[in-house]
Amino acid sequence: MVKQTIQIFARVKPTVRKQQQGIYSIDEDEKLTPSLEIILPRDLADGFVNNKRESYRFKFQRIFDQDAKQETIFENIAKPVAESVLAGYNGTIFAYGQTGSGKTFTITGGAERYSDRGIIPRTLSYIFEQLQKDSSKIYTTHISYLEIYNECGYDLLDPRHEASSLEDLPKVTVLEDPDQNIHLKNLSLHQATTEEEALNLLFLGDTNRMIAETPMNQASTRSHCIFTIHLSSKEPGSATVRHAKLHLVDLAGSERVAKTGVGGQLLTEAKYINLSLHYLEQVIIALSEKHRSHIPYRNSMMTSVLRDSLGGNCMTTMIATLSLEKRNIDESISTCRFAQRVALIKNEAVLNEEIDPKLMIIRLQKEIQELKDELAIVTGEQRTEALTEAELLQLEKLITSFLEDQDPESKLEVGADMRKIHHCFHYLKKLLHDKKIHRQSTAPSENKDQNCQEPLKEEEYKKLRDILQQRDNEINILVNMLKKEKKKAQDALHLSSMDRSELRHGQSSPFPPGNPDGPKTLPLSASTQALDSSTSPYRSSLLHRKTGMREEMSLGRQEAFEIFKRDHADSVTIEDNKQILKQRFSEAKALGESINEARSKIGRLKEEITQRHVQQVALGISENIPVPSVPDQLEEKLRSQLEEEKRRYKTMFARLKALKVEIEHLQLLMDKAKVKLQKEFETWWAEEATSLQVNSPAVTASNHMKPFPQMSEAQHERSQPLSNKSDVYARKILPSPGPLLRNQGQSSPAAPVEDSIPERPVSSVPLTGDSQTDSDILAFIKARQNILQRTGFQ
Ligand code: ADP
Ligand code: MG
C-alpha cells in the first residue's frame, strides 16, 4: 500500500504581452517547497478598504513557468504516474483551471505541431514502449473515453457516433454494486494492442466531441473529459491478474460567476458556473476536513466516476493551469486556492489483484490430481475413475443382502469411498425404476391372456397411424386452398400496380443478373476502397465522416468551401503539416532503403564469416594443421564489422519506428483539422443561409455578407468594404497569431488540401494581392453571388 497526498503542480501559460510579467513570481528555493506569488496590480489592490493584501503565496510540488516544454511536463508529472500504473496501481492526472488556461493543451496537446503533443499521447507512447520491453508479463490494454456534460455521460468512442447525434446515443450511467464499486454502463472499452491504435482512439474521441459541439452547446469548455487507459498484467502461469486504471482528465473551465475583476467582489469566493465543479469542491473540502465520515461523492457523476481518485485507491496528481494576466488574477487565485485544498487529501493506493477464474480451475484440477496421487501412496492402492468388475459384483451382493435384511436397523457399509457410495445410490435408483415400470406394464393386462397382448397393441398402433396420416393430408389441402384464395384476392386488388413496380424493379436493379452475391459484394468493395488510405478502422472512420460531409455538397457549395478553406488560417497549418509529412515520408523512405542495405550487408558479412570458417577447416584437413579455436584476424575484423552493422541497423530501425508514430500522429492532426474546417464551414454556411432568409429579398452582397469567420486579419482588413458588420465576431475567433502572420505574407492561395475537390476557376479568386482594385472587389462580390444563386439562396 502506498500512502500519498495528492500531488499538485502549477503550469503558467505563456502570456501574449510581455508587460504582464510583473504579476507573479516563482520562488524555487532548493530546500523549500516551491511557491508561486501572485502580486495584485496596484490599480486593483488600491481603491477599496477591505482588501489589504497585495500578494498571495501558494505552495506547489513544482511550478512550471511559461517556457516549460510539453516534454518537461510529461517527464516530471505524467511519467511517475505512468510508472506506478505499470506497477499495478491506479493513477489519475487532472488539469484544473479556467477556460483558455491550457488544460487541453497540457492533457491532449496542441493541434498543430507534433512537439506540442500532450500528456495523453506521450503517456501512451511511454506505456507501450515499456510493455514491449517487459517480456516477463502478459499485458492487455483497453481504452475508454468519457465525456460528462450537464451531468450526462457520453461515450466518445461509441461506434454509433457515426450515425447519430450525441443526444441520441445511450447515456453512460453510474452503477454501484453492493461493495460500493462503481461501474459505468454503456461506456465501451476498446482493446489497443499498439500505440497507434490507442492514438487513433484518442483522435476519434476528440473528433466525435468536436462534431457534437454546437455554438449553443460549447461542450469543450463546460464538459469534463476522462480518457482512461485500463491495463491488466499477469505473469505467465500465475492465476493472479493485476488491474490498473489511469484516468487522464480534462476538466471543465473553472471560471466562476460574479467575476468583476474590480471592486468589492474581487477575490471573494464566487460561485462556479459549472455545477459539477462545485460538487467536486464540496467533496474536496469534505475530504480535507478531518473526522468527516460522509463524503458527498454521489452528488454528481464526475465525483462518482473519480471517487477512487479522490481520497481512495489511487495515486492522484493535479495540474493547476494558470493564465496569469491582469484580467485573470481572481480566477488564478481561485485555482491556486483550490489546489491548496486538494493538496491536503490523502490517498491510499493498493495493488488491485484478482484471481483469474479460468486459471484457478486449472490450478485446482492440478491440486486434485496431486492429492489423488498422494492418497494412492498412503492407501497403497491405485484408485481409478471406475470401479473394477469384482468391486461392482461385491457391491451388488452387499446391496441385495441389505435389501433382503428384515432388520430395519441394518446398514449398508461400503467404506469411505465416494465411488462405491455413488454406485450404491445409482443401483438402488435403477432397481426402484425397474420395479415401477414392471408394475405399470403388468397392471392393465392382469385380466387378459398374456398371448393376446402383443398383436392387439400392434393393431391399435396401425389404426392410429392411419388416422393421423388422413388428418395430415386434410390439413395440407386446406392450407393450400387458403393460400390460393388469399392470392386471388390480392391479385384482384393490386394486379396493375404490382405489374408495373415489378417491371421497374427489374430494370433498375443495380446488381448484374445471375449474380446472387451482388448485394453482398458491392458494399464490400466500396469499404475496401475507403480503407485504402488508412491503416486502421478508426482512422478510416474519421476520413469517412469527413468525406461523407463533402459528398453531400452541391457544386456551388463546394466552390464556397474552396474559398472558405483558402481564407481559413488553419489551412496554413494543414499545409505546413503536409510539408512536414512529405519530409517525414521521404526520410522514412530513405531510412527504409538504408535499412534494407544494412540488412543485406549483414547477410553478406555472415556469409563471409561462414566461408572463412569453411576455408580454415579445409586448410586444416589438407595440411593437417589443427583448426584454431579462436578466430583469426580477418574473422575478427569481419565480426566487428557485423556488430557495427547490427548496431546501425538497430538505430535506424528505432528511428523508423519513431517516424512511423510521428507520421501517424501528423496524419491524425491533419484529419482533425480538416474535419474542424469543414464543421466551421457548415456553421458559416448555415448562418449565411439564415441571415439571407431573414434579410431577403432586399439583400445585396455588400452589406449583408459576413466575412469567412477564420479569415486572416490582413485579408479581413482588405475585405472591410464587404464586411463592415461582423468584424467583432471574426476577431473573436481568430486563432493564434503564428499562422496568421505567415498567412499575411502569402500572396497566392495555398494548394488545395483536398485533391479531389475541383479547382476553383481563376476568375472567382478574390483578394489576391495588395493592389486591390475596385474591379477585384466586384469580381469577388460576383463570385459570391454566383455561389448563392447556384445554391438557390438568391
Ligand atoms: P483550456 O483547455 O484550458 O480551455 P487550451 O488548452 O485550449 O485551454 O488553451 C487555450 C489556447 O492557448 C490554445 O490555443 C492553446 O494552444 C494555447 N496554449 C495553452 N497552453 C499553452 C502553452 N503552454 N504553450 C503554448 N500555447 C498554449
Ligand atoms: Mg479545453
From TrEMBL:
Binding site residues for ATP: G97, Q98, T99, G100, S101, G102, K103, T104
Record-linked SMART domains: KISc
Superkingdom per UniProt: Eukaryota
Nucleotide-binding keyword on record: yes
Biased composition (Basic and acidic residues): 446-456
Domain Kinesin motor: 5-345
Primary location: cytoplasm
Start and end residues of each stretch annotated as Disordered: 437-456, 498-540, 733-772
Keywords associated with the record: ATP-binding, Coiled coil, Cytoplasm, Cytoskeleton, Microtubule, Motor protein, Nucleotide-binding
SUPFAM superfamilies, per database record: P-loop containing nucleoside triphosphate hydrolases (SSF52540)
Family per similarity comment: Belongs to the TRAFAC class myosin-kinesin ATPase superfamily. Kinesin family.
Protein name: Kinesin-like protein
Organism: Odocoileus virginianus
